Amino acid sequence: MARRQANGDAAVIRVGCTGAVLALLLTGLRAQILFGWSDLRRPLELGQRLAVAAYADLAYVAVLALAVAALCRLAVGQTRLRRAMVALFTVAACLSLVLGFVNVRAVSELGRPINYQWLYYSHFMRSLDTYTALATLLSWKWVGAVAAACVVLLLLSELLARGIRRVVQEVGSVRFGVALAGGMSAYFALAWPAHSRLGGTRATLLENPVVSLVASVLTADANPVLAEMPTHVGWEDFLTASERGAEAPETPFTARARAAGVRNVLVVVLESVGAQYVSGFGGPAGATPELDYYQRDARRFTNFYAQQPSTTHSLVALLLSVHPPHTFRTLTREHADIDLPSWSGELKRRGYRTAFINADDNRFQRADAFLARRQFDLMADGWTSPCTEAEVDSSGSDECMMRTLTTWVEREPSRPFFAVVWTIQTHFPYSVSPSAPAIAKPSPLSETDGHHAPDSMATRFERYLRALRESDRSIGKLLRHLARHGLLDSTLVVVVGDHGEAFGQHGNAFHRYLYEEEVHVPLLLINRRLFHDETDEVTGSIVDLAPTIMDLLGYPIPAEWQGRTLFTRERSGRVYLFGPYSGLFGYREGNRKLIYDAIGDETELYDLAADPREVLNLAAAHPEVVREGRERLAAWMQYQNRFYRRVLQAGSSR
Question: Given its phi and psi angles, is residue 172 left (phi above 0), alpha (psi -120 to 50 degrees) or beta?
Fold first, then answer.
């Protein structure tokens, strides 16, 4: 009996020591996220802050270790079972440590721990973009550090367990257990009040990565509070064309386009390009010289938005002219065969040739299956490109895909065409060829942002601008090719960003939130017979693009489309926004922009005229605006839920 008790104590001690070392290492990683070298000058303050910051990590380790230790104590006489539980706990500790290292990178890049939504977006780590990003972010040095930390965990656990066993033999297991329980209880009791007062982004930042990931899986499909919130706001902003009733069939631009002989449509989608990075929209000088040149033959829309900072969601809005569903799940992946009329299909019915050419991978989020049902004559991407690897390396993948387009156009130049070309070089990690020119521009942040970009972010931004310059160069070559073949004057060229990109402006990289750098995108309509360097301040979004071009061509829009032409006066002046991977909702009306966190129940309100960088949150000073804004967003979500239930049910009944 005594031997069984000793074996049980040894198992419990080993679990406790592994947990203690894991807690120590996770605390060190937490310090790496939150503190810099300068904080070491105030060790007492640093210790107090770290005790609160590491609370979630320590609570996770304590609960896990106590649960396994209790099971070991209950497994009396079952030595193999206890050994198996200790081994499983050790594996879990190593995996938790690995996820802790991943969390350091995730927080620095994404502004929060990894969650299920991001795994879904990455195609569960199987997409080409994910592999490319991981190869850039994770080095062999990082992998070696993770492996070394796991070895340290195992060695220190063993050494500590040997020492603790001696202590237990001297003072007794009961006395040692009481002392340990007292110390843990004191820490959690003292640290809890300060930890519980944390809220919003700060609380998210300090979540334990394992708990956060599991919680995101369990709550992935939970309905936000907006789905049930009472609202007095009507649905006028979201109604389909048939629900809105009769509208003016033509605008003044329709007759101009007809008289000018405009018949072709070329849509160039700039991947991850926000308006603030394009020269003509206030971006760095020289970033887009080709687009600068063609602005003299263009109409520039300065208040244009992507509804959602996500490529696949923007693809849906672009082709179907509907607001994508309020979920991180994509229509392209879940309902590729959704029965809604597409921009390409409408023009195909009118005799147009149609093409979708993507410099990246059409298989991402099953976009290929979605596109296959949108009546494209040609679907091409980076996988099916005829360009050799040497050609891509020398001139860039975007220019290569532009050549794919020109080859296709030249086959039947007498027939009108509708083509979408989607660039990729401005997607992380921002691919540039050796010939890409340098851009003499540091970080996009200025002192008025209230943030400071680290050197690595500034370097990344410089590479991004070089990639943008190269994409811009490929657009210039494409337009000159059309001009040489007598097609440019008869072609309406649409240049738009699918969403923006952050470089630390609000403590975030890539595109996840609803700040201007992530959702405010450029829009240029280029045709020298129609436009002459005009600026249009109408507020619109990607859902309005197809109706706008159909209006110019003089064609009616389908009954199911929600977008409206940018040239009509029958617009609300509001544009609606949703963050599929952040749970954020928002809208802009005039200079006022509201962002609502439906998960954390927090609101941000900005005056973009006085505060274009969105630094000063005015929500507390305007509760009536916040209340109305939440109701407006609730009306949007409730209408969209109803809309998709109707469309999907109708499709399944056919």
Answer: left
